[in-house]
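Below is how a single chain appears once it has passed through the pipeline. First comes the sequence as given, then the structure the pipeline wrote out for it. We keep one example in the README because the format questions we get most often are answered faster by looking than by reading.
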Amino acid sequence: MSKKIVILNGSPRRKGSTTVLTAEFARGAKETGNTITEFFLDEMDIHGCKGCFGGHSSRECPCVQKDDMAKIYPVVKECDVVVLATPLYYWNMSGQIRTAIDRLFALEEGDGNLLRGNGKSSALLMAAEGNAFEDVLLYYDHLMEHLRWENLGHVLAGRCGHIGDIEGKPELQQAYELGKSIQ
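Resulting structure:
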């Protein structure tokens, strides 16, 4: 049975290593009949969470803020798999993806928790100039535990500081295989 997969791409580079990883993941996932919706977060107008606890999960737009998260909420509500794709910035995810993750909290508020549990799963795709992924993996593991999502795995491509550095790396095949494994 095919899955609905949403990719939240937190890279500011359309041709960067993170985007190349997501393309390989998507290629593998599509080959097994899955549907992909990808959001390039850097090109969207997404404001930081206000911490107001004013969200209501059952609303069409569960957050009190009216911005481009309104495009993401319905897709995340209906998907089976959420892929977090991001470069490594200061031992963590990029600000673009962290902002979107924070705003997903609105799906946990109000009339029912539409984010936590619900049979969702997730994967992490990352590229970095170096190889210091330990801290971000700890965050990701805690996030998966909180959300009660199945962790499908991660692909971490180090030594990719410049556009093109990822070409020929084994992580591209790993991303493809991870995408293909989702059925």
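The radius of gyration is 16 Å.

See the next section for the split statistics.
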